[in-house]
Amino acid sequence: MTDLSSSHSFASPTTPAADGHFYRPPLPTGHVLRPRLCERLADGLSGRLILVSAPAGFGKSSLAIEFCERLPEQWQSLWLGLSRRDSEPGRFLERVLSGLQQLFPGLGRDALGLLRLRQRHQPFAYEEWLDGLLDELALRLDPGSPVLLVLDDYHLAQGAVLDRCLQFFLNHLPAGLLLLVTSRLRPDWHLARLRLSRQLLELQEQDLRLTPEEAGELLSSQGVRMAQDERDDLLQRSEGWVAGLRLWLIAAGETAAADGGVARPHGAEGLIRDYLLEEVIERQPVEVRAFLYETACQERFCAELCDAIREAHDSAAVLAHLQAHQVFLVPLDEQGRWFRYHHLFSDLLRARPEGGQTAGPASAHLRACRWFSAQGMLDEAIEQALRAGQPDVAANLVQSLSEEQLLAEQNVVTLLRWKMDLPDSLLASTPRLIVLYSWALAMACQLDAAEELVGHLSRFLPAPSAAEQQNLLAQGQALHGMIARGRGESLNAQRHCAEALTGLPAERYGQRLMCLSTLANLAVVHGDLWRARGLNREALELAQRVGNPLFEALAHYDRARVLQARGEVLRALDEVRQGLERLRGLPPQRRYAVRARLTLYEGYLLNLRLQPQLARQRLAAGIAEARACRDVSLLIGHCVLASLEGRDGALAEAFARLAEAERLMHIWDVPPIYYLAMITLTKCELWLRQGQSEVAEAWLVRLAEAYSGEQPAAAPEFNPQLALYIELQQAALERSQGDLVAAERRLRALSQRAQVMGGQLLGLNAQAQLAALLLSSGQAREAQQQLMTALQMASGGVLSPFNELLTKHPDWLREQLLTQPASPQHEALLALLPTAQIPAASPEQAVVVENLSARELAVLQLIAQGCSNQQISDSLFISLHTVKTHARHINSKLGVERRTQAVARAKSLGLLA
């Protein structure tokens, strides 16, 4: 804020402030109320925009504060004071959204994470981002409790790009939200349409000038006595400029004291400038004046930071003096800890440094850097180092993060955000920075940038010693392996990772684990699940030896993926939950990619167990954390959720979800090889549900050529068996087209191939589809044989392959299950079948009949056939005791005492033929 009649910053007093960013200061002492202007502003409450534009010092911010305090009871207000740093649209929108989240918790959480992941070298679709946010905001806003969003000092952030963003924001502003903007310069917005529709209220300089009555009230409120002609002259020369009068009143205090209480007006136009530069600053005590110059370079400060900058211990006292004497100090929080100077005041201080200063701004920034670093505020520390012109200090701060910590957390957001503010030349200045940022870029799937940076390692060869040489070469090999895996170059990835493992020293355990994980993933791609299992075991043992919970969790995640491919879903779930348990002690507010992956995979496995509600919850939580970490694993969540939505008939929502995932990958600059095939395969499933077999066929042919042709591409990391699942989808296509012979041939071949490689889950999917195909084509006996094979393969806990039989052939499936020995898998499938209902025999019957379970119905059917308890036990493979228990429950539910009565009652109710 630029007006001397108020302070800068930020939020309705009832809204919690966050580090001062949304704290709206109170009206300054002696403020002259301006009800006439507040009434005019109130006329704009039914519109979209209230624009208050005038030169500095005309009371724009004071008027906005007064108006916020006079708002009708149902209104809420959010105050955002801007600075030059907000000229970057991403930062501006991030602050706006953070403020709105205080009024609407959870609003745009994903959108905020996406905004924070933006990169300087990548274009960002701000309008598309805003469109989604405004749609979400529209659902939260209550027209009965509207919100006034105040953007104070917009001129400080104003620029062409931000103007366009705000223009879009205004054009699509949802009902219940009103924008109030104060600015020295009129924004470059097209406002004719808003003005014609009476959606704009605008106040300018002539509106904000103090009337003679208001100016006289201001002078009187301060107890100033002066001759009438001098008062009139002062008011005429001030032309209603609020800041001029206020500054004059400050200067007039001492004049009145010297002249017996009578104030005299100063010279001419130079009064304000002279006062700021000479009267205010130079009349402060020497120590206060030094304090002002030494701290003016900081955008915000507290007493402890000022002490560090000045190498002193009296900053708290000086700040108290400045507050007491109203020397243009603006509070940034309600606790009175953080402050800044009024913009005009700090500009003057920076422009006219005191000659007696012992150190310049660079030294102050460097000391501030050390203080922020000691407080663990790494972002601010790096910024201060850069402003001090010390990129080497910034580099050392970045290097304080170890490769092992980065690889364990796999949260590259922080590093990539720092990268935006660091010179590109700095990234290649040391081997450590090269390796650190290469890993960050590789994990962010920015493979070209990672490879280019890795190439700079050659400048540091030969290394000073043989050990350092081997270490550097091995780290380069590990990085090349990661990059090659991302590009689908399997052989290169295997070679680089294997060579890295032979050269990496023990202390580089993080990179060793990444190589083991990559090799295990490639083993799954090549159908060697036993080798993958051995590599998983080696990785887990290494993680346990170093005692890093994040790496242990990552090893559990890799093991779960191999177990899932083998069809051992219950064991995979156990691995996932062991991994999450290892992370339980980590700070909940921090985001970890490995926790996101485990959460996503838990949702995926729950879906395989046909627990859709729990699956959706875990998938949504995993997606949120993965987005915050910029982790591509969220593709798993989007694809599984789209499949679930398609299964529920919500096809439009499913396609929209996939479009959002694809848009996100594009924004993150992720190569298509990571995501395009996975998304396209899911779309093929949805197209088949829509009956668009021609579209599905065209894309399945292209996918098959890419991943199963003469020179097949390697499957992406998150779907290592992609080629086989394409085959499975092709069988579904052939079934939909009526080519049952081709589908049967393909499914049998897939089942055999899966058995050879140990891929039980894939084989089970093929077997279950084959059973459904045979059943629908009238081959019931063959279908029964295939089902029995599938049930044997499903002992690991998989249920989803049976979904078609559960939904389309429930009676046949129940009949087959009831003829088989009892097992947890059979019971789980029986529980998913529609429960047999006992219909009322007639309206006159008043007996309340409870539902019989599937197992009880099977026992009842055998009782009706005249079977003894022992024969029932042998037939259903259950104990004699269990048979007797079921018989008692049947009698109780049917309201009878004997077996013969139970059979008769069941027949009368239509339960038995």
TrEMBL record:
Residues 1-24 are annotated as: Disordered. The keyword Transcription regulation applies. CDD domains: LuxR_C_like. Residues 726-753 form a coiled coil. Pfam families: AAA_16, GerE, TPR_MalT, WHD_MalT. Residues 845-910 form the HTH luxR-type domain. Keywords: Coiled coil, DNA-binding, Transcription, Transcription regulation. Residues 1-15 have a biased composition (Polar residues). Gene3D superfamilies: P-loop containing nucleotide triphosphate hydrolases (3.40.50.300), Tetratricopeptide repeat domain (1.25.40.10), Winged helix-like DNA-binding domain superfamily/Winged helix DNA-binding domain (1.10.10.10). This is Helix-turn-helix transcriptional regulator. It comes from Pseudomonas benzenivorans.
